[in-house]
Amino acid sequence: MPMKPKKPCNAPGCPKLTRGSYCEDHARPTYKTDTPRLSSRARGYDNAWERLRNAYRAQHPLCEACEAAGRVTLTALVHHVQPIDQRPDLRLVWNNLRSLCKTCHEKSHGFDTKRQT
Q1: Is the residue at 21 inside a domain?
Q2: Is residue 75 a contact partner of residue 99, using CB atoms and an 8 Å limit?
Q3: Which residue range(s) make up the domain with 47?
Q4: Which pLDDT value is given to residue 79?
Q5: CA–CA separation, 37 vs 99, rounded Å?
Q6: pLDDT tens-digit profile of 24-67?
Q7: What's the Cα-to-Cα distance from 109 to each of 9, 22, 80, 83, 106, rounded to whole Å?
Q8: Are 5 and 20 a contacting pair, CB within 8 Å?
Q9: Is residue 28 part of a domain?
């Protein structure tokens, strides 16, 4: 079967040709691993965590990162400052928590919400 012809990358100003939408420089990374992800319960998000999360959200209804930047955004989730896989002893410690909106949470984990050019 013949291959489809290459076309310019969709990233603005990129001169490379590709068979997909974006060249290898501008394609989003894929995060495939050989091991499946454990369930949320197995990763430590149990009933004790849910109670703590709900109490923290009740006291911090706005995104703490947005608030520090002068914006008002409702919180979407509660983030562990020190990740559970690195510091399981801080899983249920109030001072290790931060309420964040979805955008700020993705930024804290290094995910860019907009495609980089």
Answers
A1: no
A2: yes
A3: 43-117
A4: 93
A5: 24
A6: 888 876 666 667 878 888 888 899 999 999 999 999 999 999 99
A7: 27, 24, 11, 10, 5
A8: no
A9: no
Closest CA to 77 of 109, 113, 34: 109
CA 62 – CA 81 distance, rounded (Å): 17
Q: Is residue 27 part of a domain?
A: no
Alpha carbon 103 to chain centroid, angstroms = 8
The string of pLDDT tens digits covering residues 82-108 is 988 899 999 999 999 999 999 999 888
Against a cut of 0.70, is the pTM above it? no
Is residue 12 domain-resident? no
Structure tokens that stand for 113 in this block = 């919400």
8 A C-beta contact, residue 56 and residue 91: no
Number of domains in the chain: 1
Please, are residues 100 and 68 in contact by the beta-carbon 8 Å criterion? Answer: no
Tokens 């691993």 correspond to: 33
Structure token digits, residue 4? 């489809």
